């Protein structure tokens, strides 16, 4: 009996970024039980494996209607020339596959002998991230395949999570960054010059984009008048951060009784592309025409980054249905009657998928506001006996909905604690 064990070198986190190197240790052991050891003590057998290979695959499972592209045909041709058919091993369509690496050929193991091999591979930069959506799924697996002579192929898969790192939108920043780093290094002729990888430059660029504070102010109003002003300190965030904003109700014409803020993930299918609902002139009250560095780095147009749709009263006016599928991740609720200013803090979990786009789906993030407003500016009447306010028996309210797009980027995988386990396979 042969036991195969696989464990990632990065023990604290089985999460990798696109363009990062995945390292894995693979053990092949000739394992015998106690009864077999007693029976075969005089004549021990030697286990023989014909070959073993390791490959990184990205699978896609979707309910969308897809047609075979040139890339899919190329992958099918590549799979047909090898002994391993990854499609039959795991349900799903292979969209990204690295070249298989042969670990050994004709391996012979004595009873109790162990052979260890090291595998490393770079995650493709053009691949999608790990995503579990409503109608589509992307997942990565390291496939370890081996075969005995005149036996079927046995496979062991090791799942990993992949986070997207956006490519630099302006290639002219690459030489500027390299020259700047060289100027900051000490001028020592005995120091070796280290080449800066594209992944390091992308991390540095992403850090600058998410750390840059660019406050945006949005005027919130409905058909009855001014409700308040919302300030979002920056439009781009990383996983694990808190979306912090402030609401100012000073000089309002309509009282805000309470509000809730939901962080929602929006899954938009791109094939076939749905018809985009055009907002009316009265709905779009928070559009901005400024062009900042965050929109340049993320590749998102200014209209999608700074436009938001606000509906009037939900009772009198039908709100256009959102396109795609929505998932609410976190919620913040406050009662703010007679409050002049308050803060909004919405956490971003570490297990969600950042903003990304493929040929089939576009995943976006937004803040969904729900305001409960009232035209009653004075709450209750003074009570002369106790000196307190007497609450009214009825309070006329209206509901107002507002959507504000935000951009979420990936965090450093080393900052996300997700311990991996050892995966094993027994070949009898």
UniProtKB/TrEMBL annotation:
Domain of life: Eukaryota
Pfam family, one: Rgp1
InterPro entries hit by this protein: Rgp1
Name the UniProt record assigns to this protein: RAB6A-GEF complex partner protein 2
Source species: Drosophila navojoa (Fruit fly)
């Amino acid at each position: 009996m042969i036991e195969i064990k696989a464990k990632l070198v990065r023990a604290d986190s089985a999460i990798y970024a696109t363009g990062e190197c995945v390292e894995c240790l693979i053990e092949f052991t000739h394992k015998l039980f106690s009864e077999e050891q007693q029976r075969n003590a005089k004549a021990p057998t030697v286990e023989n494996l014909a070959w073993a290979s390791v490959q990184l695959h990205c699978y896609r499972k979707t309910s969308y209607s897809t047609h075979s592209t040139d890339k899919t045909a190329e992958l099918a041709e590549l799979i047909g020339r090898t002994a391993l058919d990854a499609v039959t091993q795991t349900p799903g369509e292979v969209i990204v596959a690295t070249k298989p690496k042969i670990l050994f050929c004709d391996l012979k193991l004595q009873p109790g002998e162990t052979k260890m091999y090291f595998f490393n591979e770079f995650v493709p930069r053009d691949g999608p991230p790990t995503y579990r959506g409503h109608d589509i799924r992307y997942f990565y697996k390291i496939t370890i395949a081996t075969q005995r002579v005149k036996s079927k192929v046995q496979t062991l898969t090791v799942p990993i999570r992949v986070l997207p790192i956006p490519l630099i939108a302006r290639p002219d920043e690459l030489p500027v960054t390299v020259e700047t780093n060289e100027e900051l290094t000490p001028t020592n002729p005995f120091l070796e010059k280290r080449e800066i990888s594209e992944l390091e430059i992308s991390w540095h660029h992403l850090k600058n984009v998410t750390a840059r504070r660019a406050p945006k102010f949005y005027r919130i109003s409905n058909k009855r008048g001014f409700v308040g002003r919302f300030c979002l300190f920056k439009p781009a965030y990383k996983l694990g951060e808190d979306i912090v904003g402030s609401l100012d109700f000073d000089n309002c014409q309509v009282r805000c009784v309470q509000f809730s803020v939901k962080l929602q993930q929006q899954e938009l299918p791109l094939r076939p592309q749905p018809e985009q609902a055009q907002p009316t002139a009265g709905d779009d009250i928070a559009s901005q025409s400024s062009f900042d560095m965050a929109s340049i780095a993320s590749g998102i147009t200014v209209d999608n980054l700074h436009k938001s749709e606000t509906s009037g009263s939900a009772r009198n006016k039908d709100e256009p249905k959102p396109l795609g599928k929505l998932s609410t991740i976190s919620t913040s609720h406050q009662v703010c009657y007679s409050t002049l200013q308050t803060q909004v803090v919405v956490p971003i979990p570490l297990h969600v998928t950042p903003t990304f786009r493929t040929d089939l789906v576009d995943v976006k993030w937004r803040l969904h506001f729900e305001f409960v407003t009232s035209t009653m500016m004075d709450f209750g009447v003074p009570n002369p006996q106790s000196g307190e306010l007497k609450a009214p028996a009825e309070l006329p309210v209206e509901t107002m909905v507002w959507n504000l797009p935000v951009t979420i980027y990936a965090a450093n995988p080393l900052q996300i604690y997700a311990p991996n386990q050892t995966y094993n396979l027994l070949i009898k």
